[in-house]
Amino acid sequence: xxxxxxxxKIAKHKVSDGETPLVMLTAYDAPGAHMVVExxxxxxxxxxxxxxxxxxxxxxxxxxxDDMAHHTAAVARAEPDAFIVADLPWMSYHVSTEETVxxxxxxxxxxxxxxxxxxxxDRVRMVEAIAxxxxxxxxxxxxxxxxxxxxxxxxxxGRTTNAAVKLSYEAKxxxxxxxxxxxxxxxPSLVGKMITDSxxxxxxxxxxxxxxxxxxxxxxxxxxxxxxxxxxxxxxxxNLKESTITALSAFNNDVRDKxxxxxxESYKISAEEAEELGLYGAPLPVSExxxxxx
Length: 294
Ligand code: KIV
Prior knowledge:
Elements: H1 7-11, E1 22-26, H2 30-38, E2 43-46, H3 50-53, H4 65-77, E3 83-87, H5 97-109, E4 114-116, H6 124-132, E5 137-142, H7 148-151, H8 161-177, E6 181-185, H9 189-198, E7 203-206, E8 214-217, H10 219-222, H11 240-256, H12 271-276
Parallel strand pairs: 1-2, 1-8, 2-3, 3-4, 4-5, 5-6, 6-7, 7-8
Helix pairs in contact: 2-4, 4-5, 5-6, 8-9
């Protein structure tokens, strides 16, 4: 298949121009990508939330560029009819522009159509370097989970006038450096609106209020699979953790009660073959043992 979305097309997509909000969802493997696309999603984000919701780490700092490329390739193999963005993980774009561009290229070669990185003014040089290698870049501002140690936790950002103005300035700097869209995470709705109104590229919000040009949620949060952190902006549309445990328990009980497998769930051989195998009482003739010559 392949998607109709391109980075230049997304870059022009503004709700203020009458467009429908963009929908972005995370996926980390082929079955997830299939489901996300069948639901009609515009953009798949292979997020570094992978670290927490799939790989069992405490934060996103533990995933590597190779982990991200591995999961991006799995998503791309589903040939989803959606635009694939892959996260550059922590320390893959902090050291040098050369290393940054090579790491971005690794994700593109794995199947992404764009990369995302976190941070504002400090990342402008890296955004410019990636964009000048012809790789579309999505920015990410506000609560940037890769900064959890320096921020001192997962906290709402941009709550003071100074912080909101700084965020707005950083969003403009990212757009000017070449970002085609910006994720705004965990900022007051009014700040989300102020930044969205000030940019010609779209904002995609997560905990940034209803006025962004799109919304994103994490697959495992929306489906109630990952329940360790439950910020108020996560709307859970299903409790798949509970229904999965119920289904798995039913299987366990069926095995233990000898209710699984049934005749219908088992393969058969003909009565003659069974007779020959001695399964009706007659012993297998030694001379006809097919394993005798092994
Ligand atoms: O890694 C991720 O899933 C993200 C989203 C929360 C935007 O960056």
